[in-house]
Each structure stands twice: as C-alpha cells, then as structure tokens.
Amino acid sequence: MSFHKKDQEIMAEEKLREAQMTPEDSIIRSYYDETAEYYDHSRFENTYGSFIHRQERSILLKEITNIQGVNVDLCCGTGRFMEFACYGVDASSKMVAQAKLKHGNKEFFVEDAANTHFGNECADTIFCFHVFMHLSETKTTEIIDEAHRILRPGGMFIFDFPSKSRRALFNKQKEGWHGASGYTIDEITKQAGEKLRIKTYYGVLFFPIHRLPSWLRKYFFHFDSILCRSIFKKYASYLVIVLVKK
Ligand SMILES: C[S@@+](CC[C@H](N)C(=O)[O-])C[C@H]1O[C@@H](n2cnc3c(N)ncnc32)[C@H](O)[C@@H]1O
Fold it and tell me: Is 45 inside a domain boundary?
C-alpha cells in the first residue's frame, strides 16, 4: 500500500486539474481566495458562528477518538478543525495559506477534494465541513467516492450538509451556490452507495439563533444541543453524518 503518490504523478495531475476545473469549481475557488483573509473573523468570531463551531467541534471530539491517526480535513479552509487532522486539503491556495499560519506543524495540499494525491486506503478518518452545501450532486458524489478510495476499511467519513427536512418545514428556497444543496439522510446514504454504511448522525443549530439578540444566544446552547441529538434532529438546520467504510 503506497501512502502518497509519486511527485511526477502529482505534477501531471495538477496540470490536468487546472484544465479540467469546471466553472462551478472556479467560482467557488475564486470566492474563497478573495475571502480568505477575513474568513475566520467574519464567519466565526461572532455569537452565531461560534455557536455553530462549538456544536460541530463537540461532534468531532466525540467521534474522532484518535487525533494522532491519519486524519484528513478535506476542504480544510483556514484550518478551523485542523486540531483533529494531520493533513489538510483545499482548492484555494489563499485559504491554505491562512491555515498554514495557524498550523505550521501540519501538511497541506492545494488540490481538488474529488481528485487528491493520497494513495488508496491510507486514511483513518476524513472529515469535510461547510462544503457540500455549495456543490452540485455530481460533485458531492465525486468527493464521497474519493473519500471512500482514500479511507481504510473501517475508516470514518464525517461531513455536514443542510437538512432538506428542515427546508421543507419552513418552505425555504435554495440561495444560489452558497446554499445550493440540501439532503435528507436517506438521500445521502443512497449517494454514498453500498460501500459506506451509516454509523450515526447529528443535528446542528435547531433554533433560528440568528433571529435572537446576540446576548441571548449563548443561553440556548445546551437546549439546542439536546434537540440536535434528539428524535427531532433531522429538523436541525444542518446534519452531520458519520459514514464507515465497509
Ligand atoms: C465554507 S469553507 C469551509 C472551510 C472549513 N472546512 C470550515 O469548516 O471552516 C469551504 C471551503 O471548501 C473549499 N472547497 C470548495 N470546493 C472544493 C473542492 N472541490 N476541492 C477542494 N476544496 C474545495 C473552499 O476553497 C473553501 O476553503
């Protein structure tokens, strides 16, 4: 089993990737290149962003018991969750540059999450946050397939996506590519196919916290977190699914 592909192979693939980049990929990459410097501040240094961050981090703390393992943060952005991974992958070199500033001891690769340099069956855990909401179903399937290729049998793939059940409840429309895709758990497990089985799933953000005054939000945290793990969890704004490679 080879851990990384060879240098020549990587260079040839990089060229091919540039040539093959779809308009969808280019738009998303350019957006994050331009956003990189103020991404952390604008998204997570406020009561709404930190609320979501705390809930997602608590899921990773529960599920990733071996943070020293071969763990990959796919679409790592500025490295928000790199404490759980040794490798980060992202299409935006500017986002990766920010991640490197915070995690100098980790390895990063600027590449498409659907076409990485990793060898087959080398990773223990792969996770991917705040990404599938942007992508088409085709791209999402490609990334799930790639994660499956890289994962060792028994390895976990953890990712989030907007809940379609929640959207149906509030008759919420799609909002351009930013919130392009919502799924039910059944749809995602179908997309993952026979090769990955569902271990569990969690909700994130049950209450419309953004509608509350900032000072009030923190008082909802524990109640919201309880609902996100209850029988009502599929109605949370986002779902985090844990799949295991068979
Ligand atoms: C909203 S950010 C999320 C970053 C990080 N996962 C987090 O939760 O903070 C989305 C990231 O996905 C990256 N991305 C989008 N499509 C990608 C693809 N096909 N391959 C690699 N990275 C991609 C973007 O460059 C961006 O950094």
Answer: yes
Strands 87-90 and 151-162: unpaired
Name the packing angle between helices 23-44 and 93-102 (round to 10°).
30
CATH number of the domain residue 211 falls in? 3.40.50.150
Residue 88 belongs to some domain of the structure: yes
Domain count for the chain = 1
pLDDT by residue (tens digit) across 58-88?
Answer: 999 999 999 999 999 999 999 999 999 999 9
Q: Is residue 2 part of a domain?
A: no
pTM over 0.85: yes
Q: Establish whether residue 90 lines the binding site of ligand 1, counting it when its CB lies within 6 angstroms of any ligand atom.
A: yes
Distance separating alpha carbons of residues 229 and 240, to the nearest angstrom: 11
Residue 1 within a domain: no
In this predicted model, what pLDDT tens digit does every residue of 209-245 receive, in sequence order?
888 888 888 889 999 999 999 999 999 999 999 999 9
28 lines ligand 1 (CB under 6 A): yes
Q: Which domain holds residue 163?
A: 7-245
| Nearest ligand 1 atom, CA 135 | 16
* Amino acid present at 58: S
Q: How far is the CA of 225 from the centre of ligand 1 (A)?
A: 25
